[in-house]
């Protein structure tokens, strides 16, 4: 087991969107939506990805699915580089599927539920008859009785039911990995809980691996084995869920967690944990990208960009305060 | 768990909801104006098809002694034209060429324009820019002038008239097709289909066409009335259909010399054009509102 490559390995994934203007469509500046993100996902685990709007969570998901082409970076599936002859894109897409946030927009309004779910197997050469059978059995599995629901159109379903259809569609190719891009964020709380429980059940039954992208910290904590915190297109901190939630090392993570409402009304904070908006990703600040909003920022933070540094087993933070000899007064080993 | 790959589930009958088009039809039927217009169109088409059985006389046979009789003349309920031919028979036969000249160019332009527009819209990028700028060049000319110039250059005749009218109607249809396709292309369900590994052709066939052809078809139908009027205009100018063929636009032209002596007679072909284009327009409006389903 130890020598097996991780199920999914992302190295230095980068996406720069050129901003074009003028008569000749010359690129005048670039949006660094995702800037050198690396992580790996082990078989059977759930990796949660959190961050504010615009931090590059969804772009990362779309890059993984090759819905947009990365500027640079490699994706390896079981050690095989995706997009090369050892792991062609079409084969990779059979292994990795995605559930989108907008349950309505992600279903074709002209197709019945059954047709939507059975479409992708037929693309991979499975006969229509088998695909329909598989679609019905999956609909049954996600809690939609085929007899009543298979022949319906998306507008005849509720949001929760539509998202169940989307999950069934994503599972129709029998993938190993499911990317859930804010998959439950648009649902109301009770329905959200049902869908989350369904996802947990499915994961156990089918031995799935999840990439759970959300802005909801509580839901991520409930679902994930490990968590990755993104800020302005970069990884700020990553680690096992409990370690990260109880002992966060990056001030950004701490601030995010501080934004959670305490269950104890006497213990609720009144001031905002984090002031202002994230800086513009077109011209991200030099050095640590978070220093403009960080309470512990020192001059060194605006000149040195911190790399991810290990703080404990599997727990890494990209903060100068965690790097030995970084020059920050709170860095480990620095003179107090 | 059930074995999903081998499908051990019995394929039992399921409840099927009425599809999109079934719903559109139900809504269409509730619109009396649209249904009325549809019936008029059907009547006109039937009249064209069965003209030889309906027309009381030979539309080509003239009688020099009975020229320009007013409507209501014994044996000629709608009078006779400038060569003494029966107006009623000529109007009935005229539906054949007039409808043909109105519908055929639009159908041809629908195929070509939809192909161009869907390709441009789905591909995007420089292909889109290139195709749509070419379309824009044709758009720069007023449609009437373009039709006249083209059929003038190609020469009179039905075939050349059809070609020039087709060219006139490709740009607007391509434009509509492009904008509808562009909006569909960015929807999540197209993304999801791409993420499942489907190729462009499969996606266009299964996910794009179904959402795009309806609006394009309705738009094309609204052009039939315009096309008929343009075709009549070409005939009137001597560029489309040639005498002695009965065609409403051409009849309008040849009868114009009698406009002071027999104004009612001269107006009859125009009335037919008017009725037909109004019927097509109302039918299109009805279809459009029936298709405008917001779930």
Structural commentary:
The complex is a heterodimer of chains A (336) and B (295). With 336 residues, chain A is α/β, with parallel strands linked by helices. Chain A has two domains: 8-247, Rossmann fold, CATH 3.40.50; 248-336, no CATH class. Chain A has ten helices and twelve strands. Chain A has helices at residues 57-64, 89-95, 113-123, 128-141, 146-149, 159-171, 189-206, 217-223, 241-246, 251-258; strands at 8-21, 26-41, 46-50, 72-77, 80-81, 96-99, 177-181, 209-213, 226-231, 234-240, 309-312, 315-317. Chain A has an eight-stranded mixed beta sheet, with helices on both faces. A four-stranded antiparallel beta sheet of chain A has the order 2-1-4-5. The radius of gyration of chain A is 21 Å and the shape is globular. The model of chain A has no long low-confidence stretch (mean pLDDT 86). Chain B has 295 residues and is mainly α. Chain B has one domain: MetI-like fold. Chain B is built from eleven helices and no strands. In chain B, α4 (87-123) runs antiparallel to α5 and α6 packs across α7. Chain B is globular. Chains A and B meet through α2, α3, α4 and α5 of A and α8 and α9 of B.
Keywords:
heterodimer, A: 336 residues, alpha/beta, Rossmann fold, 2 domains, 29% helix, B: 295 residues, MetI-like fold, 0% strand
Furnish the topology, listing elements before pairings:
The complex is a heterodimer of chains A (336) and B (295).
Chain A: E1 8-21, E2 26-41, E3 46-50, H1 57-64, E4 72-77, E5 80-81, H2 89-95, E6 96-99, H3 113-123, H4 128-141, H5 146-149, H6 159-171, E7 177-181, H7 189-206, E8 209-213, H8 217-223, E9 226-231, E10 234-240, H9 241-246, H10 251-258, E11 309-312, E12 315-317
Parallel strand pairs in A: 3-8, 3-9, 6-7, 7-8
Antiparallel strand pairs in A: 1-2, 1-4, 4-5, 9-10, 10-12, 11-12
Helix pairs in contact in A: 3-4, 3-6, 4-6
Chain B: H1 20-29, H2 32-49, H3 51-54, H4 87-123, H5 125-139, H6 143-154, H7 158-185, H8 188-195, H9 200-236, H10 248-254, H11 263-291
Helix pairs in contact in B: 1-11, 2-4, 2-11, 4-5, 4-7, 4-9, 4-11, 5-7, 6-7, 7-9, 8-9, 9-10, 9-11, 10-11
């Amino acid at each position: 087991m130890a020598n097996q490559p991780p199920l999914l390995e992302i190295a230095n994934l980068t996406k720069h969107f050129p901003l074009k203007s003028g008569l000749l469509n010359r690129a005048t500046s670039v949006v660094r939506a995702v800037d050198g993100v690396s992580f790996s996902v082990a078989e059977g685990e759930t990796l949660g990805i959190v961050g504010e709007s615009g931090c590059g969570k969804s772009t990362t998901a779309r890059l993984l699915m090759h819905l947009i082409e990365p500027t640079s970076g490699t994706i390896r599936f079981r050690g095989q580089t995706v997009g090369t002859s050892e792991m062609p894109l079409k084969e990779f897409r059979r292994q990795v599927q995605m559930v989108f946030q907008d349950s309505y927009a992600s279903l074709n309004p002209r197709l019945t539920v059954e047709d939507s779910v059975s479409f992708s197997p037929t693309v991979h050469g499975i006969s229509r008859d088998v695909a329909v059978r598989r679609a019905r059995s999956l609909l049954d599995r996600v809690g939609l009785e085929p007899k009543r629901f298979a022949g319906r159109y998306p507008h005849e379903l509720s949001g929760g039911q539509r998202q169940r259809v989307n999950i069934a569609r994503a599972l129709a190719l029998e993938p190993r990995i499911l990317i859930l891009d804010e998959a439950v964020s648009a649902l109301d709380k009770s329905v959200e809980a049902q869908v989350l429980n369904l996802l947990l059940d499915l994961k156990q039954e089918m031995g799935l691996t999840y990439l759970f992208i959300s802005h909801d910290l509580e839901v991520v904590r409930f679902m994930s084995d490990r968590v990755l915190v993104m800020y302005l297109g970069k990884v700020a901190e990553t680690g096992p869920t409990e370690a990260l939630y109880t002992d966060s090392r990056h001030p950004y993570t701490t601030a995010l967690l501080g934004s959670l409402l305490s269950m104890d009304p006497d213990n609720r904070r009144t001031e905002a944990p984090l002031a202002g908006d994230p800086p513009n990703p077109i011209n991200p600040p030099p050095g640590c990208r978070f220093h403009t909003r960080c309470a512990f920022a020192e001059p060194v933070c605006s000149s040195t960009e911190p790399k991810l540094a290990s703080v404990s087993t599997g727990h890494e933070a990209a903060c100068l305060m965690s790097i030995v000899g970084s020059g920050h007064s709170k860095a480990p080993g620095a003179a107090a | 768990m059930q074995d999903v790959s081998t499908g051990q589930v019995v394929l039992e009958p399921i409840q099927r909801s009425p599809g999109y088009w079934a719903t559109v039809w139900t809504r269409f039927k509730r619109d009396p104006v649209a249904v009325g217009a549809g019936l008029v169109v059907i009547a006109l088409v039937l009249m064209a098809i069965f003209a030889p059985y309906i027309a009381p006389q030979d539309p080509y046979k003239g009688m020099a002694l009975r020229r320009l009789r007013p409507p209501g003349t014994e044996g000629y309920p709608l009078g006779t034209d400038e060569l003494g031919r029966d107006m009623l028979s000529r109007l009935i036969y005229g539906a054949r060429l007039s409808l043909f000249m109105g519908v055929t160019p639009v159908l041809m332009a629908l195929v070509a324009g939809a192909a161009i527009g869907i390709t441009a819209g789905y591909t995007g990028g420089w292909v889109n820019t290139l195709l749509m700028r070419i379309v824009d060049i044709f758009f720069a000319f007023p449609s009437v002038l373009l039709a006249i110039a083209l059929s003038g250059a190609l020469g009179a005749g039905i075939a050349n008239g059809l070609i020039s009218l087709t060219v006139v109607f490709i740009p607007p249809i391509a434009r509509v097709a492009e904008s509808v396709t562009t909006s569909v292309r960015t929807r999540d369900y197209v993304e999801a289909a791409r993420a499942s590994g489907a190729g462009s052709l499969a996606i266009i066939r299964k996910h794009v066409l179904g959402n795009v052809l309806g609006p394009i078809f309705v738009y094309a139908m609204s052009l039939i009335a315009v096309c008929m009027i343009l075709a009549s205009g070409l005939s009137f100018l001597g560029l489309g259909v040639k005498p002695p063929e009965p065609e409403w636009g051409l009849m309008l032209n040849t009868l114009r010399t009698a406009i002071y002596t027999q104004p009612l007679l001269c107006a009859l072909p125009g009335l037919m054009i008017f009725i037909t284009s109004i019927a097509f327009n109302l039918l299109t409006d009805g279809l459009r509102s029936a298709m405008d389903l917001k779930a």
